[in-house]
Design brief:
Blueprint: H1 3-13, H2 17-27, H3 35-49, H4 55-66, H5 74-85
Helix pairs in contact: 2-3, 3-4
Length: 86
Amino acid sequence: MNNKFFKNIENKTGVNMKEVFELANSLQNANFKDEETVRGVIKRVAQLANRKVPKELEDKIVQSIVNGKEQLDFNTIANMMNKKNK
């Protein structure tokens, strides 16, 4: 993929692709059974997406991931955030 592709994504979403890649790299060796790590990832994804995640929703997402019910990825978190906001 080329820079033009990523620039188009940035323009459409307002999300800085460099930050997305930095976050993705930081997740490679992260311990997703650690609540603090998972909370940090949720907060970072919310910040990148320019969304607020209420404490109650954050708690549900954290418990779901830490307990192994959900895998930690952008789609999982986005889907959980969208369910709550509907």
